[in-house]
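Hi team, as promised in this morning's meeting, here are the two structures we talked about. I've kept the exact order from the run log so nobody has to guess. The first one is mostly here for context; it's the second one we should focus on when we meet again. Sequence first, then the predicted structure tokens.
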Amino acid sequence: MVQNNQVARSTRPKSRHKPKKGLSLRQGMVWGIAFALTTTLSATLGATVALVTPFTSLLTIPFIGNQSGNPILGILNYQVSRPVTILVMGVDRVLDVPDHSAEIFSGRSDTMLLLHLDPRQKSFNILSIPRDTQVYIPGLGVSKVNAANAYGGPALAGDVLRDTMNGLTIDRYLRVSTEAFRELVDLLGGVEVFVPQRMSYVDQTQKLKIDLSPGWQTLNGEQAEQFVRFRHDVYGDIGRVQRQQTLIKALRHRLVSPMVIPKVPQIVNLMQKYVDTNLSIEEILAIASLGLQLDNSAFRQVLLPGRFSEPNEYAASYWIIDTAGRDRVLQTYFNGESLNANAGVSDGNTPLNDLQIAVQNASENPQSAKQLVQSLRQQGFTNVFLIEDWSDRLQKTQIIAQSGDLGAANQFHEKLGLGQVEASSTGELGSDLTIRVGNDWQATP
């Protein structure tokens, strides 16, 4: 329930019962995709408004303003008039619950995203929160963040994240059941994704078989599910979050295709079955209107900074939040004054030369990364290190703001004099910046 135009503030979990056992699915799915599909596709044809009527309005003060008059957006009647933060949760399916029951959304949240849209800066930012993040849950104590939805629904989940994120206002929520993902990808005709390594794994108890070869390929729904469920690499669940971010970008690219338009009724009907939200139709259309006005550089993704807990540190394994990194991410990605694409906020405590910088070759020259490392060390960079080559070849060098420090990434970009800043957390875990050296970089004699 919404109160004062926000996710309701709860003083206790709605339920003290033991959470129902969900399917043994550890998808790490791209549940933010469901939100993007719902909003963008609803905007594609004005005629689809009637199809999304099950989204119940819980508004007290709408965050929508007047239509701009843009003829391209003429079918949309609303605009987002202020910054908006939305909690998106992908929820494990609860066993023995009818398909149309609200209880299908009462499982643990396998994925949690915070989406921040700012019409003033024309930005769309996504913060990925690992499901093992250590938090305090009222009534449970110290626990993993994915338990909040199971014990208290979106209200408790919103409370926990609000407290964890320094009082961040969460305006709306959206929950998606696990069944949505595979069907959505198939309806879109698949997604083009670069698979960075051989992915092979079989789990008979989960009835899970993953079998993907490396390289660029168009994945169908089942294969895309395998891509994001694979966790048997050095990063475990964090690796899944990184692949989640990769798939979000791939799906957004698919959504701009005109071939999607005839499939709108099928996709919206699918979303009606698998989505629970307190966004109204008008808000969905307003967000879609904003999304259609943004270019690729306006979409930025970041992982909640932190570290894996040590084996003997706690009874359970956790993702331990880096509070300084969290504060920087909140300032950079959730404070509208800091969202200019060419600017960012560095924490101010670490000189650029002292940042942890991972360098990875992605060029045709096998020596490029080594040469860049040597060059940076000669320039006074004290914590630069070489990592295993990226398996794809890039024409343009990528400067990945792994820890969310866009200020540092842009400063480094200026110093390097080439490449492009990538606002994502798909680089080397533990680095501040990951540099994927493309064919545009050449060592100076």
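And here is the second protein, the one for discussion:
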Amino acid sequence: MKKMLLVGVVGLSALLGGCANTELETSVQNLSNKVDQLAQDVSAVRADQSKIAADVADAKAEAARANQRLDNMATSYKK
């Protein structure tokens, strides 16, 4: 009788453990997918930031050139 009960408990534990592992694997897979998506989002944001940084550098260079032209115009009007 005790032997049958022991086999039943072990069998039930194995069955429940198998279900728990499936849920765990599903959870891990979902988290992995989320991490992959976040990694892609970070890459996209980095690319956008690099492009914006280049645009800002170009704008600063243009502003410096415009200021230099204005300075040159101002010096030609001195008495």
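Starting points for discussion:
Helices lie at 2-76.
The two ends are 117 Å apart (CA to CA).
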